[in-house]
Structure formats: structure tokens, C-alpha cells
Amino acid sequence: MKEDVELHEEQNELYEHHRIVVDPGQLPTRIDKFLFGKLSHVSRNKIQQAAKAESVLVNDKAVKSNYKTKAGDVISIVMTHPPREVEITPEAIDLDIVYEDEDLLVLEKQAGLVVHPGHGNYSGTMLNGLAHYFEKPKFKEVENGFGYLVHRIDKDTSGLLLVAKNELTQTKLAKQFFDHSVERTYQALVWGDLNEEEGTIEGHIGRSLKDRRQMTVFPEGDYGKEAVTHFKLLERFGYVSLIQCQLETGRTHQIRAHMKYLGHPLFNDARYGGDTILKGTTFTKYKQFVHNAFKIIPRQALHAKTLGFIHPGTGKSMQFESELPVDMSMVIEKWRNYATHSME
Asked: What's residue 343's pLDDT?
């Protein structure tokens, strides 16, 4: 019987998970050697790093690299993705670093900034900016020269982002993301007046079968990957609402796709239909009001507001909170005033 290998990969978290059941005929073997033979794209050193980070589990317990596998063992390993074959050129980009120590840093990403190079965006990204920042002599601990990502947020989403400075820290943080122990809340302005004060959206998310640039919710779970978003109503403005979302999983466009599925797309989210007037009146004055609001925030109204995790080096709980950016604050205030005057 062959080992059962299951690859699990979060779309918006930069790690992968393998689950292997050891064959009954397998002789006792060091687990780093055993996994090296099973995972073709992974170096033995990377496996040992995962074990050091307590990200190699056997029957739900962390083991060291020298553990000897036994028949029937259920092995789970969480690792960061292998490095992308994209050259990161240092570029002087304005970065808002809100916290930094020898192991990691937390940034406030502005809307419009791409996190890492990819198709159509090979320069001008956050990683290009970090490569320039880490050129300073004091950053000897940043071996790859540009930092180690453990998650990402969309180009036109603003807010808090966590970056590791070394591979061990990255691997430990990846395990926290996999365990869903990282606390993240977002604030979003959405179309419509929510019926419920709070709730949970569950539905697999995968690429749309009609448009590969868009993610779609598949409620039956026969396609895509499990996604869970908890939401809470913060303020009603009649035709739009301010909500808070807490992520349990981290799929690509998760909040944007889930809110569209719920019937409340994000305000001015062009990809998910929020850039048209979905709620309100037919009055010309109202239409002009909405278009003026679109001009203030020419992106989806979504901000990564809080971030909480356990520091991999110190074991201390770290909590960060950011203020809403100017464009989102202005639009919220505009809708607040409109709702107040509408009731007079």
C-alpha cells in the first residue's frame, strides 16, 4: 500500500500542508529522511527547519528530525512555499513599518501596492521596497534580502501585513496560520442593509469557471476549498452598511467573494459588481452622491484593521490595530451624514 499524500494549500497564506500515512511495510526511518524521499520539491534542510519549528507532527504530536517512523504513523507537515523564480530588484518604495524586531516586522500596506511580483506586476511591489529597505548593513539576518511572506492582502486592500525576517520565523508563523490561531479582523463598507447583526458565511471558494480573475462560492463543496468568514454589523447607513469580518481561513478574495455571495458586495469593488449603484433611489441627486463617493475611494472599501499572533521567538501575544485610511474614513462619514439627513 502506498502512502496517502494529501496536499493542502491556502490561497492567501503562503504555506503548504502534506498529510502522509506510513505504509504497513515501511521500515523504521528517520522522519527527515523519510519525508525527503516523499516530497520531491523539498530539501532535507527545509524539512528539518519545519521540525525545529514544531511543524512536523506524528499522530498529532510534534516530533524532532531524528524521530523514527513506524507503520501506521499519520504524519502532518506544514511548510512555507518554495521560493518563487522571480528576481526581486531593490526599489525605493514608501513603506509604513509599524513594528519591527530581529525576527519580524508588521507593515501598514497602502491601497494600490502589490505585495509581491507576479504576472503584470514585476516591479513596484512591497517586496521590491523591502529589498531596498533590507540593503542596510544592519539587516544581516534577512538571508534572502527581501523578507519572508506568510500571508498577503489584495493590491487594493489596505491594512496590516506580517513579514518574517528569517525562514525559521516564517515556518513557525505559517503553522499559526494553518492552525487558524492568527487573529485578523477587517472592516468593510458593503452594499445593502444586513438582516442579521452578525453571522458566519461558510462556502467553498474557488476560481470562477467563467472568469479566472474572479473567485466564486460553491456552497455544495464539490469545488474549491473550505472558507469561513465571521461578520458583525458595526453601523447601518440605509443603503450601505459598515461591517467587521473575522477570517477563519485565508482564501484569495475571501471577504469579497463571500459578501457578494451573501448579496452584499463591497462598495466600489469592480471585480465583484460593487462599482455600480446596487441599492438606493432613482433620484439624480442620489446617483451623483454615490458617484462622488466612488471618486473618493476608487477601490473596494476593505481594510485589514487588526492582527494578532504569538511571537515565534518570545512566545508573547502580539496585537496590532490600525486606523482606517483617509479614503475609507471619508466615505463612511459621507454615508453617515447622508443617512442622518435622510431621516430628518
From this structure: 58
**247-288 tens-digit pLDDT:** 988 888 999 999 999 999 999 999 999 999 999 998 999 999
154 given a catalytic annotation: yes
Beta-carbon contacts of 112 under 8 Å, excluding residues fewer than 6 positions away, are 155, 156, 299
User: What global pTM score does this model have?
Assistant: 0.84
Rg, Å, the chain Cα set:
22
Whole-number pLDDT of residue 117 = 82
Give the separation between CA 148 and CA 152, rounded to whole angstroms: 11
- Nearest Cα to 115, choosing from 105, 131, 97, 128? 128
Q: Which residue of the set 154, 156, 269, 327 is catalytic? A: 154
Select from 198, 193, 226 the least CA-distant residue to 339: 193
DSSP summary character for residue 327: H
In order of their start, the domains of the chain are 4-80 (3.10.290.10), 96-178 (3.30.2350.10), 183-342 (3.30.2350.10)
CA angle 227/267/117 to nearest 5° reads: 60
Cell of 291: 458617484
- Is residue 7 a contact partner of residue 20, using CB atoms and an 8 Å limit? no
pLDDT of residue 226: 87
The reported pLDDT for the residue numbered 320 is: 98
- Low-confidence stretches of the chain (pLDDT beneath 70): 1-14, 81-85, 139-141, 221, 343-344
Cα(300)–Cα(214) distance, integer angstroms: 14
Cell representation of residue 95: 513603506
